[in-house]
Design a protein that fits this description.
Layout (H helix, E strand, L loop, with lengths): L5 E8 L5 H11 L17 H6 L6 E9 L2 E9 L7 H9 L3 E7 L6 H12 L3 E7 L8 H12 L7 E2 L8 H11 L15 E10 L3 E10 L1 E3 L3 E4 L4 E4 L2 E5 L3 E3 L2 E3 L3 E5 L13 E4 L22 E7 L5 H14 L4 E7 L3 E8 L2 H15 L3 E3 L6 E5 L2 E5 L11 E14 L3 H5 L8 E8 L2 E9 L7 H8 L5 E11 L2 E8 L2 E2 L5 E4 L3 H15 L7 E7 L2 E8 L9 H4 L3 H21 L6 H8 L2
Parallel strand pairs: 1-3, 1-4, 4-5, 5-6
Antiparallel strand pairs: 2-3, 7-8, 7-16, 8-15, 9-14, 10-11, 10-16, 12-13, 12-15, 17-19, 17-20, 18-19, 21-22, 21-23, 23-25, 23-26, 24-25, 27-28, 27-29, 27-30, 30-31
């Protein structure tokens, strides 16, 4: 295929702005999917994606298109819109030359619109702006088109007005892709160099092993070729290759400028990494001729949650399910964990709160598992005793560290101007530092910095509440900063309950401690002895509640002729028995208590 006749592009937008619906119309317009097979959100293959109306996994498709007698191959990648999957989006941007920046006319430009625009501009892509859902006659359509034009730096009449639902304006948008998006070109300056391709996604097949989604930048690859993966430093032979139609369609070769797939036959997902470079294997004269494509980095989990089997689910079931899930979601990391109260479990790392919600929902739906999730935590860098270590488990956090560093995020909040005061008031509830406030038309962009841990305390809900649902935000991890945090331990009768240990901000320690012990007093069942529920910080008890003992019926001595002396002897005997029982017994916190306490 001549590279001049290829166009590679993505659709990028804030979450729920209609990317997948627009992709449906493109599939229909190009005849890629027959009308009888068409269904809404065709490229979203997961049931969870359809139910929630969001794209979780990027989806590539190859379309044939004719314009003015010329035939073109259009390679589209539909991308996720949430900040948690920004690394995945960045790999898709590295695989294409153009982007459709889509804005929902009923909602206007939102935070992830700005974030995606900057990422596409940084990647050097040709950006085409489009306002979606004009079939609803939204009153803000003109305002949104004007703002989008100013953002991209084009005339307002260059912003396309479309309806992904009805197809209005979509043919003209597709023509613009062909006319404005540049054809692919080689990135290698050496005349004699190995074939190279970029892995921008992957999936697992029981028979074909790991299937790498690739963009070919130099040369060509054929079935049976031996290839080398740069980051993994591993080799294999291509079992099968081909294109996305959008189903996998085997072919004879894929060459420079094209997007397709390679079945590696590998069973270990750690060997096929998103962002890695695949080389044609063989001897080359100069090391520089084997330069990897730029931008590879490992996706870094930032939220850690311990999961424990519950109900009929066994630990082996949970572990096996995560092993399978990891084959299609390589960003997940997990390792064995254990709790005296909850038994064996897994400590799992996620890219963010939404990634956690999606992965656990898949465990429930696809594997039918029941489990308990601990309080989410982040990783802290702790210095003390002459060493520096990363602490992911709150129970490993020292009582008196010399210095603690916490992961930080740069946050960008996009909101109508009338809600700016309510949003700025959030710094009373969250540890957020406002950096800059800029005006864009009737909107404001608030740049801020805050600890990553704040995302797990309902920041999203508070933003929506403060702005009546009109504001949105995006974020990216931005290094570390000193942290004023404490380890909060919960004890029942002097025994620490490890599953309830948390790292919290110092200025919130007492309120969190008080809330937790009061809640436990309500939830824990009474015993035949008094139970002390305590919260401890740095070896000091800062909150306490007492659960009284069960009362034992001694009988009605007045009616049966017994005297008070006998009654007092029985009470004394019972008191001594309870004291002895308390000394011998340990309180076992029921699973139901954990379930209720950890419930959002």
């Amino acid at each position: 295929m001549n590279q001049e006749d290829i166009r590679n592009f993505v659709i990028i937008a804030h979450i729920d702005h209609g990317k997948s619906t627009l992709a449906d119309r493109l599939l229909e317009l190009t005849g890629t999917v027959e009308a009888r097979r068409m269904k809404p959100q065709y490229l979203d293959q997961l049931e969870l994606e359809r139910e929630r109306g969001i794209t979780i996994k990027m989806a590539p498709v190859r379309m044939s298109y004719s314009l003015n007698g010329e035939s073109y191959i259009l390679n589209l990648i539909d991308t996720p819109g949430h900040s948690d999957f920004s690394y995945e989006v960045s790999r898709a941007l590295a695989a294409v030359e153009g982007a459709i920046l889509l804005v929902d006319a009923t909602k206007g430009i939102q935070a992830q619109t700005l974030s995606n625009f900057r990422a596409a501009r940084k990647a050097g892509l040709k950006i085409i702006g489009a306002i979606n859902k004009i079939d609803l006659n939204p009153p803000r359509a003109d305002e949104s088109a004007k703002l989008l034009a100013e953002l991209i730096g084009v005339a307002e009449n260059e912003i396309f007005r479309i309806s992904g639902k009805t197809g209005e304006g979509v043919p003209m948008l597709l023509e613009a892709v062909v006319k404005k998006v540049p054809a692919p070109s080689s990135k290698n300056v050496f005349a004699e160099s190995p074939s190279r391709s970029l892995i921008f996604d992957s999936l697992y097949d029981d028979h074909k092993g790991i299937i790498a989604f690739v963009r070919i930048f130099d040369g060509k690859f054929e079935e049976g070729d031996e290839i080398e993966l740069a980051a993994a430093k591993s080799k294999c032979k291509i079992k099968e290759l081909g294109y996305f139609t959008p189903q996998l369609k085997p072919g004879k070769e894929i060459s420079a400028g094209e997007i397709g797939y390679m079945a590696t036959g590998m069973k270990d997902p750690s060997l096929v990494k998103i962002g890695d470079t695949i080389f044609e294997s063989g001897p080359f004269s100069r090391k520089s001729e084997r330069a990897s494509l730029p931008g590879y980095r490992e996706p870094t989990p930032v939220v850690f949650v311990s999961l424990y089997p519950d109900g009929q689910t066994k630990f082996e079931d949970l572990k096996r399910a995560f092993e399978r899930l990891h084959l299609t979601d390589s960003a997940l990391i997990f390792e064995p964990d254990s709790s005296e109260a909850l038994g064996r479990g897994l400590k799992v790392g996620f890219l963010g709160q939404l990634h956690f919600e999606i992965a656990t929902s898949r465990l429930e739906r696809e594997f039918g598992l029941e489990f308990l999730a601990s309080f989410p935590s982040t990783a802290y860098t702790v210095r003390g005793g002459g060493e520096t270590r990363v602490v992911k488990d709150p129970n490993d956090f020292p009582d008196n560290p010399e210095k603690v560093l916490q992961p930080m995020i740069d946050v960008e909040i996009f909101s109508p101007a009338e809600f700016v005061n309510q949003i700025l008031g959030l710094n009373e509830k969250f540890h957020i530092e406002i950096i800059e406030i800029k005006n864009i038309g009737n909107y404001v962009v608030i740049s801020a910095r805050m600890p990553l841990a704040e995302l797990m305390r309902g920041f999203d809900d508070k933003i929506k509440s403060a702005s009546s649902g009109f504001a949105s935000f995006s974020y990216e991890v931005a290094g570390e900063a000193p942290a004023e945090v404490e380890k909060l331990e919960i004890l029942v009768n002097g025994d620490p309950i490890s599953a309830l240990t948390r790292i919290i901000f110092k200025d919130e320690a007492e309120s969190e401690a008080r809330t937790t012990v009061e809640r436990l007093k309500e939830l824990l069942p009474k015993q035949q002895f008094v139970q002390a529920v305590q919260a401890k910080v740095r070896g000091r008890i800062i909150a306490r509640e007492t659960i009284s003992a069960m009362k034992k019926l001694l009988g009605n001595f007045g009616k049966t002729g017994g005297d008070r002396t006998r009654k007092m002897k029985l009470w004394k005997k019972q008191k001594e028995g309870k004291k002895k029982l308390k000394e011998m017994s340990r309180v076992v916190v029921p699973t139901k208590v954990f379930r209720d306490l950890l419930k959002k």
